[in-house]
Amino acid sequence: MKKSIQILLIVVLVPILSVFCCCSPSLPLSVQAYVFGTYLDIMLYDCDDLEDITQTAFGLEAKLSADSAAFPESDIARYNKALSGESVEVDEVTYNLVVLCKQLFSCTNGAFNPCMYWLTEYWDFLPYESDYAISYKDDLTSDISNQSLLRARSGFDGLCSSSIDTARIGTLCSDGWSYVYDDAVNSDGFCISNSKNVIFGDKVCQSVTALKKISSADLVEAYQSDGKYYLKKSGEGVEFNGAVLYNRLELGAIAKGYALDVIKEMLTDTAKGYLSLGGSSIIALEPPKSVDSFNIGLINPRKELVDGAYYAKFGVSSACVSTSGDYERYFELGGERYCHIIGKDGFPIDNCNVMVTVVTQNAAEGDALTTALMVMGEGAIDYLDNRGLQYSLVRFNPSSGHYEITTNLELHDVNGFFVCN
Fold it and tell me: 61, 90, 138, 354: which could form a disulfide with 94 (CB 3.0–4.6 Å)?
């Protein structure tokens, strides 16, 4: 039996841009660089140099980052500073990514949304300082205490909101990306209209409603003119705490995968090895002759409950692996966890989805899809099955009190979770 190479979906903290070995016919060339707020890990066989690859990654970050303090002249930062009606010239690579984002926004019915900048900032999840700070904490009233939140949650009989939500998959668009809600839920995909008011208070809900008006990808137009590429902003601004805010892009949910796709295009068709950005976005190329596949370790999203760094492993080659979950960036109120992924209602999701991993042929689409699947709640299972994707979804079952895995992957070394199928 041939041995396998293990890649754990975790961030390894080691010195920046460290070259571990020289390239030879039998040994890989490995490099690590800090980019997009995390670590780019590359291991390639039969290669000559990785410097061009790392420089490409740095260049992509300089174009696509919305961090206006670190990258004030990035394409996205310049778009974000623009007023309604203004156009900003951008690089072709930025244009192509925004076009892809708009397609995915449309075909997932907004479950993937590249324009969540202000809502992400409002919920304190923006991974850098905004030039205009806003926070839900300023809107919480004194009577919204942990005890009242606990009572509000118990009003749902201990169920996650997705246990009430009857959202299901409807028709698929031509490329299989359409996600729709049935008639049992309103246009926001939310069953009980006043439930968020009960949990967070009226002022928070009013702020979220205002920010949602400027948080649509439909407000971004991408177009070409005279061989140049542009992004144009539309829509009225929203007055918020004395300032007028306009639509902004935040591409953190897709940029890492997109960067890996661009890097992959730089490689030859016979390239062997893997590319990983933060462990949540991986491209597994052909493995070297000495192994059958790369062994992916799925990080344990509930280490406080289950021992072990990962909950399962599976083998993969010539494919992309993307993961999203609620386990790294989140806050807790009233015993409930609210993660960095913002739902269609403008609130952090709390729909019992814990972590989802998908195997695709495109890393950018995989990254966007896992974010959308986290937003979809229980409906994610039907979506994945209808599209024929390989996946592993961890959900909390409030009826049994167990964390359960629904998967069609051949998992091994499963640790601590119940496998549903």
Answer: 90
- Can you tell me the distance from the alpha carbon of 232 to that of 87, in angstroms, rounded to the nearest whole number? 4
Cβ distance 40 to 54 under 8 Å? yes
Q: How far is CA 87 from the centre of its chain?
A: 27
Query: What does R_g of the chain's alpha carbons equal in angstroms?
Result: 22
Contacts of 250 (CB under 8 A, 6+ apart): 66, 76, 114, 115, 116, 117, 120, 126
d(CA 372, CA 353) in angstroms, rounded, equals 11
Phi/psi region, residue 361 (left: phi>0; alpha: psi -120 to 50; beta: rest), is alpha
Length of the chain, please? Answer: 421
pTM of the model: 0.83
Written as tens digits, the pLDDT of the chain (421 aa) is 333 333 344 323 222 222 223 334 457 889 999 999 999 999 998 777 788 999 999 999 999 999 999 999 999 999 999 999 999 999 999 999 999 999 999 999 999 999 999 999 999 999 999 999 999 999 987 555 443 443 333 333 333 443 333 222 222 222 333 323 222 333 343 333 346 767 788 899 999 999 999 999 999 999 999 999 999 999 999 999 999 999 999 999 999 999 999 999 999 888 899 999 999 999 999 998 878 889 999 988 988 777 778 889 999 999 999 999 999 899 888 778 899 999 999 999 989 999 999 999 999 999 999 999 999 999 999 999 999 999 999 999 888 888 889 999 999 888 776 666 5
